[in-house]
Every structure is written in structure tokens, then in C-alpha cells.
Write a structure and sequence with these properties.
With about 260 residues, the protein is an alpha/beta fold. It contains eight helices and ten strands. Helix content is about 35%, strand content about 20%. Strands 1-2-4-3-5-6-9-10 form an eight-stranded mixed sheet, with helices on both faces. A two-stranded antiparallel sheet has the order 7-8. The longest helix is centred in the last third of the chain and has 18 residues.
Length: about 260
């Protein structure tokens, strides 16, 4: 069977209300179908393998797909050093309010999973389901050693070796401090929508224990965790992306 041609979506921009130039790609849904809003991880963008796989998945099924780059990343304007969870969450909420139509399923990768949880809490009428891909809620808390937190306070930033590229991974103090305002774990998370979590068994950045804790704290009774044996944090291998799309398909069928 010949695979249908997928027409690329055009790069466009929106302003959340203060002059920011936020890049996005939007594939409109067919009538009555939900839209997948994909939220990248920290220092990632909407052109990654998982984001593009989600877009292709939607294109072949008549689903909508909305992808965006947070300010200071990818094709968006601004400086990465100005990025905070508060600022990027504002952009996600603006994308929901200005661009999205119909029912939404949020799919968040790593930090994007943290933002997705907050967006679902703030837009309960629009968000009908959520997929966390190596979701990393509260990582500014448990993801840094005490000595690294001291360096952040002293120097205003922290550079660490980046296992995914030649450039160091930089955390800015403002971003790290914003994490304290957005902690979710160790309290009931008041979401009752269907939620699926996909996590690597050998994730070195976000331990499997974080996913188990998140599942326990979520109020929803419809939460499932898929653990991929031997997988790390990126979950970008073909069989890992396939597992993600299977969970996404299940959520689409769940809310239709």
C-alpha cells in the first residue's frame, strides 16, 4: 500500500500579547476531530523526531496538530536566557486560546510534560486528554544537586555537559527559580481526564520513580504508564516513537 503524501505545514508566528514572536505550525483538524498540541522539552523545538512523528500521525488520520517553539528556542524570537516556566506556560496558554479549535490532547515531552499538566489545569474546558513523554514535573527541584543549586545562586547560570550534543546545557537562574512556583508533585493534581505516560526504564535524566509518583498524585482514575525496557530519556528510536503513537491513538479513541 502506498503511503499517502503528507503536505508540510507552513511556519507561522503569533503574538501572545506583548510583542513576542512565537513560531508555530498548525495542521487544522477535520470537522469533529481533536487537535494534538505538542510541547517540546527544555531547549528543544518543534522540529524534533517526536514532534514530526506526531504531526505525520495526525496528517494521516484527519486530526489537527499544533506545534510551537517557546520564545528563545527554535524559530521563535527572543533570548533563551529570558525563558522561564512562567513565560513559556503563558505562550502555551496563548496558543490554546488563539490558535486551537475543538477538543485538545496535550502531548508533552520532558519539560513539555510539566507544562502540559499546568495547561490542562488552567484550560479544563479545552483539554480532554494528556500524554506525558518522559514527563519531568518539578525537575528544577529533584534534577539538581545541592552544589549545583549553590552555583546557580552564585553565578546566575549553570553549565553542564550535554549528552545529546556538543554544546553544554545551560540553566539560567530565572528559569530555575520559576520552577519553585510551579511544583506539582507531593500534592493531589486535580486532573480527571484520561492520561497516558510513556517512560524509559533506564532514563538517566528523569527516573522511573518520577513517573510513578506522578501517576500516584494525579486525581484521575484513568491513568496508565507504559514502560519501555532499556529505553533512555529521548524516546526517539523508531520502536519508542511507535509506542508513543500507540498511546496517542488510544487517547484519540478514548475521547471520540
Amino acid at each position: 500500500m502506498q503511503t499517502p503524501e503528507i503536505i508540510p505545514t507552513e511556519l507561522a508566528y503569533f503574538d501572545p500579547g506583548d510583542g513576542r514572536r512565537i513560531a508555530y505550525r498548525h495542521r487544522p483538524a477535520k470537522s469533529g476531530s481533536p487537535t494534538i498540541l505538542f510541547l517540546p522539552g527544555y531547549a528543544s523545538d518543534m522540529e524534533g523526531a517526536k514532534a514530526q512523528a506526531a504531526d505525520a500521525f495526525c496528517a494521516t488520520r484527519g486530526l489537527g496538530c499544533l506545534r510551537l517553539d517557546y520564545s528563545g528556542t527554535g524559530s521563535s524570537g527572543g533570548d533563551f536566557s529570558d525563558g522561564t516556566l512562567t513565560r513559556w506556560l503563558e505562550e502555551v496558554l496563548a496558543a490554546i486560546d488563539l490558535l486551537a479549535e475543538g477538543d485538545l490532547i496535550l502531548a508533552g515531552s520532558s519539560m513539555g510534560g510539566w507544562l502540559a499538566l499546568h495547561a490542562a489545569l488552567r484550560r479544563p474546558n479545552a483539554v480532554k486528554a494528556l500524554l506525558g513523554i518522559a514527563a519531568a514535573p518539578d525537575f528544577t527541584d529533584w534534577g539538581y544537586k545541592p552544589e549545583e543549586k549553590e552555583l546557580l545562586k552564585r553565578d546566575g547560570k549553570l553549565e553542564r555537559a550535554n549528552p545529546y550534543g556538543p554544546e553544554p546545557s545551560v540553566t539560567w537562574q530565572a528559569f530555575w527559580e520559576s520552577g519553585a512556583e510551579h511544583r506539582l508533585l507531593n500534592n493531589p493534581i486535580d486532573l480527571v481526564i484520561p492520561i497516558r505516560l510513556v517512560h524509559g526504564e533506564q532514563d538517566p535524566d528523569v527516573s522511573l520513580g518520577v513517573a510513578l509518583k506522578l501517576m500516584a498524585d494525579l486525581r484521575s482514575s484513568d491513568v496508565q504508564l507504559r514502560v519501555i525496557k532499556g529505553a533512555g530519556h529521548r524516546l526517539s528510536e523508531p520502536h519508542e516513537i511507535h509506542a508513543i503513537l500507540i498511546e496517542l491513538l488510544g487517547l484519540v479513541e478514548r475521547i471520540l
